[in-house]
Amino acid sequence: MIIVLKPTATESQAQDILKRIEDAGLKPLYMPGVERIVLGALGDERVLQKLNLDANPCVENIKPILTKYKMVSREVQAHDTVVRFGNASVGGNQFAVIAGPCSVESEQQLLSVAEVVKQHGAVALRGGAYKPRTSPYDFQGMGVEGLKLLKQASEMLNMPTVSEVMEVSQMETMCEYIDCLQIGARNMQNYALLKAVGESKKPVLLKRGLSATIEELLLAAEYIYDAGNPNIILCERGIRTFETATRNTLDLNAVAFLKQKTHLPVVVDPSHGTGVRELVIPLSRAAAAVGADGIIVESHLNPGEALSDGHQALTGPMFQQLMQELKPFVEAAGKTL
Ligand code: PEP
Ligand code: MN
Q1: CATH topology of domain 2-63
Q2: Which of 15, 55, 100, 287 suits a disulfide with 268, CB 3.0-4.6 Å?
Q3: Whose CA is nearest to atom 9 of ligand 1?
Q4: Is Nucleotide-binding tagged as a keyword (predicted)?
């Protein structure tokens, strides 16, 4: 429920109501505005009704939050959340480009591609050290050695990093080396992991599950928020459909829909969304046009040699071309690159 107080309501009246909400076993929310204070109460709505807040003279009106997700909803917070890590910010007027290899493979591979993407305007470096691979025989990532290389690249280039955490047991090490924790598509409904990243307070890039609905994605984000972490970036990375021509079907509906329903920033992953290098630039343009807050793209200076996802990696010159072609679309959407 959202409880809008009258402009004349005082701070102490607001605190009294918050206490009653808390005493009833509900989660209180405090949202002071310029003109009036807005409160929220999350939990069993029947309990809230018993509090009879309508009768309180400082309450102007009470509105139910109609969606299942609450704190990530625009009904609770109208303005856009901006997630900051290192010198990068995602959300608001900036269109953020996060780029780097699918997997960290070696010092030379990571540093060389990081330099190129940084030079052309990427604001953060991606790279997987723990890789969720469909086959157990495929490259599983460099583990902690990969994390160390990411940290080294980050310090050399003054560029924050994004990397996937696959298990709760990896959290401590990840937090030591990485600036933004990626939850991969396969782990979107790993609730223990969602709670762990929620408790950590590190920015989180939450990818949509392979067959997850938009509501399920938002409820996964709600888990992280509810555990205490509001620094969440949502990522549309393509879903499973009947179509087999491309690896996944990039759901741009989801981006426009999410931008209406949630205040969290939304980025697009056209690399996994298409699985085809040649389609990454056109779908990146589309992401900017539809109102995304950024993209996360895979890039490799020698994709033929890549240990994972080489077929969808942009080469150095293609990354440069991407940045040039993005600019007018980002500007048309009212953002800056
Ligand atoms: C990745 O980013 O390399 C990755 C494994 O992504 P996803 O979880 O979207 O498949
Ligand atoms: Mn990949």
Answers
A1: Alpha-Beta Plaits (3.30.70)
A2: 287
A3: 185
A4: no
What are the tens digits of pLDDT across the range 108-129?
999 999 999 999 999 999 999 9
Instruction: Give the ligand with the smallest distance to the CA of 98.
Output: 1
Name the residue with the closest Cα to ligand 1, atom 8: 184
DSSP 234-266: EEE--B--S--SSSSB--HHHHHHHHHHBSS-E
Tell me how far CA of residue 34 lies from CA of 7, 31, 54, 290, in angstroms: 10, 10, 23, 31
Domain boundaries, the chain: 2-63, 83-332
Residue 136 has what DSSP assignment? T
Q: How far apart are CA 292 and CA 298, in angstroms?
A: 17
Closest CA to 261 of 83, 44, 65: 65
Nearest residue by C-alpha to atom 1 in ligand 1: 102
Give the Cα separation of 269 and 272 in Å (integer).
Answer: 6
Residue with tokens 């959407």: 333
Within the chain, strands assigned E span 2-5, 27-32, 37-42, 59-63, 83-85, 88-90, 96-100, 124-126, 161-164, 180-183, 204-207, 232-236, 266-268, 294-298
CATH class for the domain made up of 83-332: alpha beta
Which is the closest atom of ligand 1 to the Cα of 237?
9
Q: Name the residue among 249, 188, 247, 193 with its Cα closest to residue 219.
A: 188
Which residue has better confidence, 160 or 66?
A: 160
